[in-house]
Structure formats: structure tokens, C-alpha cells
Design a protein that fits this description.
- The chain is α+β, with helices and mostly antiparallel strands and about 1450 residues long.
- Helix content is about 55%, strand content about 5%.
- It has a five-stranded mixed beta sheet with strand order 3-5-6-7-8.
- The longest helix is centred in the N-terminal third of the chain and has 35 residues.
- It starts with 10 loop residues before the first helix and ends with a helix.
Length: about 1450
Amino acid sequence: RSHGAPKEPTAESRSHGAPKEPTAESRSHGAPKERSLAEERPGPMLAAGDEEEKFVRARSQSQTAPHGQSMSAPMDPQDNLHEVLPEQLGKRLHGLRNSLHLLAERAQEDGAVQREPSLITAMVAALINYLLMFGLCCAYGMIMFYEDYNAQHRAVGVKMNLGAAFIMGLLLAFKSKVKVAIGGPDLNPVVFLGFFVDTISKTIASSLALDLPAAHDRRLSVFGRVLGDSGGVAEDFCSGDHFYLYRNLCVRYHEEVRATVVFATALSSGLLGSIFFFLGKFHFTRYVTYVPTSIMEAFLSCVGYKVFKYALKFCNYDAWQFIPAACIGVPLYFLKANHIGNPAVVMPLGLLTPLAIFYGIMEWQGIDVERARELNLMFPKMENVPFWLVWSDGLGRLDRINFAAWANTLPDLSIMLIVCMLDCLLKISSTENKLPVKVDKDHEICLYGMGNMLTVLSGSSVGYMQLKFNVINYGVMGNAQDRRGGLIFAALCGVSYFYTIEHINWLPRVFIGSLLFFAGTGFVAENLWGSRHNLSRTEWFEVVVILSVFILSDQILNAVAVGLLVTTISFVVKYSKVSVIDGRPMRGGEIATLARRVPLVQKSIQHILSSWLLVVHLKGFIFFASSQSVTNFVRSMIDVEHQQWVPEYRRLRFVVFDCTLLDSLDASASKGFKKLMADAHSAGVRIIWSHAPPRTLETLKKRRIVRSDADWVSSLDGLVLDIEQMAIEYRAKHQAWWRNLHHTFALTQNVLNRRAQMEPFKQVFPMDWARVGCPWRYCTKMPILRDQTILCEPGEVHGAIYLVHSGAVGLFTRIPQSEEEEWEVPRAVYRHGWFINRAMLLQAPSRFFAIAMEDGEVLRWSEEQWWQMASERPHMASSIQRSVMKQIVLDGEARTRASTAQAEDSVTKDDSTLLRTTSGVRRTMTSSGLGSPVRRKTCAEGGEVPTQETWPEEIQTSLQGLASARALATMSFYESPAPEEEVELPFLPKCVQLDLQIAFSTFAAQEKYTLGEFVVPPENVAKALMYAGVFDPATVMRRFDRGVGEEEFVRIGHEALTAKLTKRQISIMEQIFASYDVDGSGTLELEELASVFREGLEPNISTEEVARIYSAWRDGESDSVNLRVFIAIMAMFIKRHEKDWQLLQAMQAVFDSQWCTDTSTVSYRELAQRCPGLSEAQAQELIWATDFRSKNGKGQVIDFKTILGAVITCFDDSGGFLPPPPRVPRGRSALAVDKAAANRGRRHSVVRGSLPGFKPLNTQDFVTQWRKNHTVAGGLVLGEEDEEDEELSEEKPDAQLKEVPRFNLKQQLYYLLEDPNSSSPARVLSVFLMVCNVLSVCILVAHPMIYHKQESPDYNKIEENFWYSCDASFTVFFSVELFLRYMVSNAVEKLVSTHFFLDPQNACDLVAVVSFYPELVARNSDTQEWRMLKVLRLARVARVGRLARLARHVQWAMPVIVVFTVIWFIYLKHVELE
């Protein structure tokens, strides 16, 4: 390790990967440790070079303390690394890595390296804690007996708190697992005890007919008690003449007050002790934290405000006393909280230095202690009371306990219990963050419970562990193992408790005030201001509201009532905004269906379901407020369709509430859903509940929401399948209308249906060339039985791949092991044309059980059959593999469709966004994609741009066929020959002839005629031809009256596969061949053949497709294509696209245009005119049902491609019976026709003639001629993929060079006022404004310290005018500055004007300047109406908030300013009352 080898991470380092929270010791003694680190391990720290030293130096500068902070600050990437030689770079990086590793090790081990226990440090720590605790106990006693008429009991209050400090300190020092724990009374319960005393005093005085001192006479009578202060006290209550007049009653009053207060305090300690013990014993601490955080923060903020008020009261609201006290206590707290300095030095100096200064000034002024008491600089002398007085005058005198007065404290007691429990748990939890210890929360809180049981015996107040004392104790001793600090502390507290507290008489008011400011700062800085980081803006506003009520009423009960009301309202509002919809409402087209179908059929179904079905996934608990958003949304969807006269076939039919994540719903929500179901039923909409848990379903049935089994389903997937089947039947009805539109459409549909009944290869071999070689020879048919046939199991490797023809196969993760066990919902259901166990092709194990769900048949490829096909027919195997890969992609898209749709709206808005006006609901349906998800693609820069959804593969393939057919027709290949013109039928390749012979042998074996000749029965001729791959519509639909022999069968197949050519057509082919035979060899190589197709016939044909044609048509003696073979290829190509030419002619008839394009459209009126028996309304419905691309189409027009998709779509996926297995004719071998010819030298002669006007075709000429003849004249450009609406243009290099923006005057003024770093004048102005802010606040503070009313009125008026002029000057200056900033607030960013004042700093500035102008109006007015405006002078406290601008430069400035603002507000409120 000393040479830079990285240390193996230990278990502790792995479990504490993040750096530990810095401890007090590490913060205060970090520098020596860092020096020892450099001295102890100089190797890696010095050998790493300048980079390591710079890193360590920058790291130490970035920390508040040199050691113990997070190690996450990175080194500057430009830190001279580019100047390091390549051979030195590895060494430097290695040294830097070692340095980082050593620093990280030191940071992790820092908590464990502690000082050895020392008696001296323990005594110092105990003394510091004792001084602080004694001072706080004195302050706590005064807080308990706050009013001056109860001042004689303050000594008892001090003793009660010292007793808690002694008992809890001693118990924790011995038994706590936190060995440096210091126990004692806390400020929270003491404040509530002060409330107890106030309530008890008033009740006892009222029962004795004594009048407590009234509120101060000089309060603002306009607001009555609202701004009242209980601080004004008549001096003759139970003293002086009043005491002599009511001597017995006053004695009785004080006896009952003392006894009742001691009883109430002891009882509260006992209750809290029992609660503490119960929580820890039964591990119920986690339930206590269910109280809303905002309420807890508000109550603690009220405590802090009250403590500040006590501090100012004890300082007599004298600026010469409370300002120094605040300047001592507030900084002392922040020094402790931020661990600045060594607590062994900071705390004694903070406590003793003010005392030394105070007595030094007294000595310098010649003032003794008694004179100081007369000047009200010290408290009245407090006599010591014996500790047993709590028994002799308290618990021991039951006759003096006023139980009626104690009963009035019960409301405050309930609040006290909650606040103290949470405060205690908070201190326990925070201990682990402040100290390097692990706290057993249950053990500690049990210990506090037992300790408070003991405090009951001494009548002491509630006590528990004090976190700030723990930190001081640990910081001074330097270890977390020494218990002696706590023991000595408890002993010192015990001495004061059992002996005397008279040394309290030497503590001035400033000292007690500073201690209270020290104690209360944490509440204001952390609970009031600091809570805004953990709370939302609304929750923090709740804290401010509760605190404001407490300030105005001075009653904690009023604050509690308002807090409960605000919290309830906030909870209802927030919970109503919390969406009870998981994700967003989804249309049926977005639901991930189980069924797998061909893409064109699936898109058609999704299009229909997007209008028919709406699925709402409910979650959580639905109550009356949150249910309105759901019911109103669904009702609005239904109403919008009725108001806009949406046709019946496009309306919503099913609304499904998915209850998978639903907990329950209350009675009000149930009524809303019942009303919704009734309204929906009258509108023809069915509402169905799915996936309801048993308890939820029972609730729905009990409340009559679910009335029958038709109102709920156990599985949403099954319901979607049923609705999809309804959509398929609906679309099948429209297919009949398309068949009636043109006879070619009917012929195409009939061929597709027959093929679907015959075989499942339509999607496997979209191009016919891949089918050459009879695929039936390499697979076997296999029947499947429902719930019995298992095609594959998880983990199966050497299985088979299956292609479903009829029936259905489901994928399951498990199967039932008994008859009682129910089947799970399948992962997917596969039907006609889908492969099963696709993992076999990858030689990967199967993942699911593939089980037959319906009876049917499948095709099976075993491993042996597959490899035989791959060897003999590689192109066929490749086509199947490509089909499998496409299905894998489609399968993945189907499974993730729902999650993708929800991910696009992952940040779900509250349900109120779903509730809009009628047009707004329709706009929400459209923009949010309820009908369909928006597909996106990622651009090169990482952004996303919307793009159109691509057309399904079936349509793209058909478009390519139409494009090829038009190209062939352009060259007159589809012209009918003249009657006398001779035609020639080119030959068939041997492999195709073999396919026909296999087909004949297979079907002819079914029947033997008497003539001894095998024939194919007439009813099976069409099947046999399709068996061989013949799908010519005229041939397939032809009716045969007799059986067909082999020769005739081959001839029929030959004519169905090859076009008859005229001599002119052959001449054209010869010219084309000659133009591409560049080398004059008389043959075409693969590349040359590909050029022929791509440049003149089929531009989008792939190289693999050309290779399939090339390999199928080569004869046995040559690897090239000669002229004879080329003519045969062209003849078959022409015949294969003849059906496309017929389909194109039918499309031209429908569009009534010979030059229709792929963008041509036809309206519903034109469609109705061209289809007999089709009305305009039916035409609109037909267009809407077919046009799956138009998400919001109303059935007005339909384009070319959509009609083409409707014609080539087959909705019947039931499948028929598979044909029998193939029979190869005897003596025939499929391999014989496929082997390559050995002789490559033979060439065919080519007649190089030329037709008049014919020239060789190349790419440019062909495309130019094609588009000139057809596109310009409105022709058809087919076979190309859709271009996107918007293309991403590449930016030129020059476009990236932007000019430096030139700002206008308004923008220049904005940067001058708002951005100090924008220019030198802006920096100067920022400093000037900061100086003005500081001066204005200094004048605000100096005014009460310097200004005193004199006997001379003239002198008073001159001095008052001086202060007023200063205030007015600064206010006018800041008013102008605020107005200018407001005017230019939208110069850079377009903001709403009111948003400027939503910023807290701007709002503070506005209040600060606005408060001056009502004061200006009311300054010289004596009328009652204008005097009411003087209360607005309290807003002057906002001027202190101007110092918040310091927070831009000093991180901790803002909480300090907030604390002083609260202090100054309390003072100004008191001044206004005066």
C-alpha cells in the first residue's frame, strides 16, 4: 500500500460505499490528519506529479473542512493532461488513481480512528454541557412560569428541569448504547408546559374570583385580541395592596397553581414515558411517523416562534439587550450546526464571553448587581427552593390540586404527546448522521420510557436524549466510547438539583436571552425555512398558514384547529389530484393483445378497437373526489360522441375498468360509478370490470355496481380477444362490399381464401421465387388436440419448429399440476401462419410451454428436416428464417405495445387535465394518442422527431408487384396477341417441372381409374396446382369436369406459370438481353441479371431474390443465364405479375382514371356510384372501417393504398385441412436438377439486331422514360417506401457559427440589473445595491437602539424626521429598482408578468417597499380609519429580507436572515402594540 498498490476493498467499505457523514472530530481536526496522511504515505501522494498535488489542493479548498467530506469532486479534465507525453500518461494516471484510493480509504476509516478516552477531556465536555444545560434549565423554568405574577414559582420550574437532567443524564450515561449520550429536558415539552401553566392559572384565578391582569392598555383596539399580547401585566396582582386585600385568596391561588402544575408535569412525563416504553417494546416506532410532515414542521415552527418571543420578553424588548443576545445565540447555533471550529473552544467562548463582557461593562460603569436589577438588566432575585418541595407543595398535597384546571390542559396535552414523540424519534434518527454510532431505536426509546417513569417520582418534566449535547460531548472528547462525560455531567446537574440554584441570580437577561435564541434558532432555521427543501410549495404554505394563525391568536389550539382543517383540505385536494388511473386511459388499439395475426389484419382490428374499446387501469383507493375525475372523463367521452353526431359504428361500445391495482372504493365513489353505468347503458355502452381481486369484487357486488356476471370478467385479455373477434366479423362483412365493387377484387379475395384454407405459407414466401423446390418435402403435418398436445417445454434444446395452419397454440410459463388448479393467462396465442418454438433455429432452449388451445394442424420441421432443407434448398430455408425473424419483431412489438403507450405519457398529469369542455375532450383524445400510439424515431443528434407509420409489408409487396406490372405493360408485354399471330410458350426449369410432378403424384394417388392411368380428380386439380406453387387466379378458380392426367396436369401448370409470348415480345427481350450483355459473352452473370430487374422491372428487388431466380433457372450445363433461359425467366415473371396487372386495371376502374397514382383518392359518393347496392352511408362506413391509417377519419375519402390493402387482406384465419404428404415420382431426384453444370465454356449465340427506336436501357433512361410517360401525366409511382413528411437536414458547417447576439436596450438593462457577471457595470451596480441593502437594514436596527423620546418636542420631531427621511430615501430607491426589474423581467424569457412576483425574493422586495406608502398616508392622520393602516407597518420586517441577496454569495446567509427576520417581526409587533 505504501507504494501505491490499491487496497482490496473490505466488507465494511463495500457496505458503506458512499462516504460517511463528516463527524465533529473530522471537521475540527481535519488539517492535522491530512498532514499526517502526507507524512505517513508520501509515495503515491508525491510521485503522482503536479496533477495529484493540484487535485488534492483543489479538493481541500472545495470542502468546508479539510477532511471528512465527500470524495466525489472530479479533477479538471483539461488539467494539463494534453501536455503529458504518452509514455508518462499511464504512470500519472496510475499515481492519481492511488491517491484517490488512499483518500477514499482515509475518509472511510476516519470514523473509526478516534482519540483515546481521557478524564480531562471528559471533564471539559461535562462542564461545557453542564453550563449550557443549567442555563437552559433556568430559561425553561422561566418559560414555564412566563408571567410575572407567577414569578415566585420559577425556582420550582428550574428544579423540575434540573431533576430531569440529573435522572435522564445518569440513566443514559449508564445504560444507553450511545455512550456519549446526554439526557435532559427539551424545549418542546417545556413550551407546552408553559401553555399548561397559563391555562391552569386562568382557571384557578377564575374559580377564586380573582381577575388576572388584563391585556395591555396600549394594544391596537381595532384588532382586539388578534394582535393582543399577554406580556402586559399589572404589578398589583397578589402583591402590594392587592395582596393585602385578597391575602387568603392569593395564598390559595399560588398553592393550587404550584400543586396543579407539578401534578400536570409529572402526569405528562408519566404518559410520555409509558408511550415511549410501549413504542420501543412492541416496535411501533414506525407508525408514529404517519403524522403529516407539514403539520409537524408547523408545530415546531410555532415552538421556535414562542421561544423567540420568550427571549425578547426576558430582554424586556430592549434593543440594547435582545440585539446583542441574538447576535450571540444565533451565530452560536450555526457554528454548532455547521461544525465550525472545535466545540471545546467555541461553546465555552460562546457562553462565557458574553458574561465576561457584561460584567466588564458593569465594572467600567460602576454598576453593581443590585443596581443592574433595578435597571432591569438582570432578573429579580430568585431564592433557592429545596428539591423535596415538589412533594411537600406539589404531589403530596392532593387537596391543592385543581383537577378542573388540569382537565382544561388536556387539548394541549394531546398535542404535546404527538410533538414530543416525533421530536424524540427525530433526535434518535439524526444521531446516526451526526455521530459514528449505530443506534438501536427500540432500545433507546424504551430507556427513555423507563427514565421518565423515574422523573414522575421527582415531579420533573419530560426528558430524553439531547442531540446537540451529544455532538458537543463527542466533539470535545474526540471519541464515542467514553461514558465519563455523561456521568460527570449528571453529577453536576445533581449537585444543582439537590443543593442550590442561587447562582442563577448572577446570570443577566442577555445571557438567558442568548440561550433561548440559541435554542429557538434550530426550530426556525430547520423547521420553518429548512423544511421548504423537503416540502412542496403547497405544503410549505401550510406551515406558514399554521404559524400565522398561531402568531395572530397566540393560542396553540387555534393553530391546531386550522392545521387540521388545512391538512384535511390539502389532503382531499392532493389526493383528488393523485391519479387513480395507472398510466393513462388506453384505447383498444393500444392494448397488447394475446392473439398474433398478420400485420395487415392486426392493424385493421386495432383501428376498429380504437373506437370501440376504452380501457382504464384503476389503482389505489378511490374516494368521492378522485372518482369524479374518472366518471366525468368517461361520461364526457360518451357525451361528445352524441353531441357531434358520431355514427353508431364509430362510437364507443365497451369501457373496461381494470382493477388489478385497485384497493377499494368508498360509498360515494360507488354511487358515482353506479350512476355512470346507468348512463352508459342508456347510451349503448357496456361498462365491464376486470381483474378485480376477491375482496374488491365482493365490494362491487355488495354495492350493486356489478349486478351480473356479464358486468365483470376475470381476465382483460380474454375480453379483448372476444372484442377482436367481433371486429373481425365486422370487417369480414365489409370485405363482401369490396368484392362487389369489381370482379377482379372478388377473384383476388377468392384465391387468397382458398390459399389460406390450403396452406400457411402466404406470409412465409411473399415472393414466389423462394417457393421453388416444394416445401412440403421437408416438413410433416401434425394434428394437435386441445389441452393435450404439448409442442415444446421450457429448457428443451433439440426440438422442432412448428408452423400453425389451423387451431391455436398458446405459450404458458407453467401448466396446472392438478385438475383443481386453474390455467394461467397465456403469454400469447398463435394462429394461422405463425411459427412456434422459434428458438430452435438459434439452438437455444425453449422458454415456455407451447400447448394446443384449439384442435387443428401444424407443420413440423425436425432438426434433420431443417438441415436437409438448408442443404438442398438454401433459399427456401433463408426465406423461412427471414419470416421467423419478422415474427419475432412483431411479437416483441405486440408484447410491449401497452408499455410503450404508457411510457410516452409516463409523467401522468392529474385527472383534472382529462376534464375539459366538449371540444377539449376530443382534443385530448387526439393529442394524447388515445386512438393510437405515436411512433418516434431518434435523430442523429439524439432528439426525437415524429414520423409516419410505415405501411404493412403486405401492401409494400403488392405495390412492388403493381409497379412491375406497369413497367411490363409499358413494354407491351400484356398486349393480347392477334388471332392469327403465333405465340411461343417458353420452357419450364426442371425444378419447377419436378414440383408439378410431385404435386400430381401426391394427389393422383388418391384415386385410381379403370383405364390404369393415375389422374387427379377434378375437385383436387386446383389443390394440386396450389400444392406446386401455382396461384394464377384464372387457373385456381377454374372448374374441371374430369380428372387430369400427368401430362395434362404439367401442361396446365406450365401455362399457369409461364406467359405465352409473341415474336415481337421475344424481340424486345432479345434487345434487353443484348443491352445488358456488356462483354458479348451471350450470357448474363448474376450482377447483370440483377441490373435488368432493378433498372427496368422491379427497382426494389433484393440481391437474394435475384440469386433465387438465377439458381432456379440455370440449366445443368452452365452457371450463367443464356438468352433462352432469360426469355423463360421473363415469361414466368410476366405471368406471375399478370394478376397484378389485372388488379391495377381494376383499381383504375374504381378511381375512374387510367393514370391513378398511389396518392389518388376516391370519395364515398364516388364509391357509392360505382358499387351497385352501396348507399352513401354504407360507403362512409366502408371507408372508415377500411382506412386503418386515418386515426380520426370520418369516412369521407380513401386512398389507393388503403383500398389495395383491403383487397389483399384475408380475415379468415381458421385454416382448413393440410394436404397429404408429398410423393416423389420414381426415378426423379430433386438434387439432380439443382447441381451446377461442370462445363462453363458453352455459350448461346445472340442475334444482335435492333428494333427501330430501341436502345439499351440503363437506370437513368428507364426511370426517366417511366416517369415521363406516367408520373408527369398523373401516373403511378409504386413500390417505393413512403417518404417522411419532414426530413432532418444536415447543417452546414457555416450554419453552426452563430453571431454574437446584439441585445436591445431592454435586454441590456435586464442583464445590468439581474446578472452581475454579465459586465463590469453590472458588477459595480450589484455591489452598490448590496451596500444599500446593508445600510437600510442597519438603519432599521439602529433606530430603536439610538432613538429615545426626549422631553423636548422639537428635538423629538427633528430626530424622528431624520430617521424617517433615511427610510424614505432607501424605499424610493428600492421602489425604482424593483419597478425597473419588473419592466425588463420578460426581456430574455417570455414570462407572464405576475410570475415575476412569485419569486420569494421579489415578493419580499414588493412587501418591503409597499408597506411604506400606507405608513406615509397614515403618518400624520389621527382618524380611526387611517390609524388602522398603521398595522401594515409590520410589513417593514420584509426589509430585513433584502439581505437575502447575500445568499447568492454565502450559502448559509439565507437561514440566518430568516431567523433575524422572525426576531425583528416579534419586536415590531410589540412596538406597534406600544
